[in-house]
Amino acid sequence: MKIQSMSIVVPSTKCINDCKFCVSKMHKEHYPNRITDRRYDFASAFAEYKQKMEFARDNGCNTLMLTGECEPQQYREFLKLFGIMNKELQNPFKNIQIQTTGTLLDRKYLEFLQNHVGVNVICVSIASFDSKENAEICGMKYPVDLIRFCMLVKDMGFTLRLSINCLENTLPSLVKVSDASNIPTMDIMFKLIKQIYNPDQITFRDMYQDGSGSEVAEWVFYHKMHPMVFNKIKAHIKEHGVFLNTLEYGFDRYSINGMSTVVDTDCMSKDKKEEIKYLILRPDCKLYTKWDDKGSILF
After folding, report:
1. Rounded CA gap, 139 and 92, in Å?
2. What is the pLDDT of residue 3?
């Protein structure tokens, strides 16, 4: 079984952000929270949760992503618990990542993630390179200065990945940051990203919408990056990047200006492939392979 990564869905009630493109809003399914809800047998849930993590490791999964329907850092107590569980595994996860907009994360909290949770990769989700516009699209109660946050992440020794949600204003927003006068070419775009944010890794994410006609799906439909521009990014990476390797799920990884670069055209794992893109461990202590289908349960 080839598995690209394991996603830990941090228990949540309501996200502190209100992203206009949030995939979680497109589907509503309830998964009981057995791992931290005191109505359930904690000892049994703890053992079962660890068992699922061990299953992923036994099947060669090396990368773990802390994510969810909220900002993972909203639930500090769960992150403490996760850190304990991972250390108790016979073969703990060592590549531990967190997907976030950066809200609520200051130096002290990042030290907690680094020292107690074991996080070594900060994946910053970006809807716009302009911090003000990014905060508006993401519905941030506590906006983030992207440039300062990225500088802090790098200063503390984390690996920094920019997860760029490809919207219609992705390139124009980069121009605003750089005070340039025209929309940048692909070559200039990568140079500006390197110069301003200095990420170690970049993922360009094709925006997903399920065609449901929901408010979120409609917003994505009208605001996602034009296919011609998205294809130009893919072509530039392939032509000018240095091929590194093919990831477990089939995406090619290239090096451009010293940055590991991947284009994700299947963020919801909808393509028909033998490989499993994600193992998803939800608070009900069960493993799934799809984000939006309870029928994808493994055990």
Report:
1. 35
2. 81
Parse the chain into domains and list their residue ranges: 3-296
pLDDT in tens, 248-264: 767 899 999 999 999 99
The CB density around residue 108, as the number of other CB atoms within 10 Å, is 7
User: How far, in Å, CA of 204 to CA of 265, rounded?
Assistant: 8
pLDDT of residue 273: 52
DSSP 110-136: HHHIIIII---EEEEEES-SSHHHHHH
CA distance 207 to 261: 17
Kindly state the average pLDDT of the residues 76-84.
96
- Kind and range of the H or E element at 67? strand 63-67
Sign of the torsion formed by the C-alpha atoms of 82, 200, 134 and 125: negative
Determine whether domain 3-296 maps to CATH 3.20.20.70: yes
Residues 141, 117 contacting (CB under 8 angstroms): no
The residues near 1 (Cβ < 8 Å, ≥ 6 apart) are 59, 60, 276
Alpha-helix runs per DSSP H in 32-128: 42-58, 76-88, 107-112
Task: Give DSSP secondary structure letters for 188-246.
Answer: HHHHHHHHHH--SEEEEEPPP--SS--HHHHHHHHHBPPHHHHHHHHHHHHHHSEEEEE
For the chain, what is the mean pLDDT? 90
Coil, helix or strand for 66?
strand
pLDDT more than 70, % of the chain = 92
CA distances from 38 to 43, 80, 162, 173, 231 (A): 11, 16, 36, 45, 49
Please give the model's pTM, rounded to 2 decimal places. 0.91
Q: Are 269 and 5 in contact (CB under 8 A)?
A: no
Three-class DSSP category at 100: strand
What's the rounded Cα separation, in Å, for the pair 287 and 280? 5
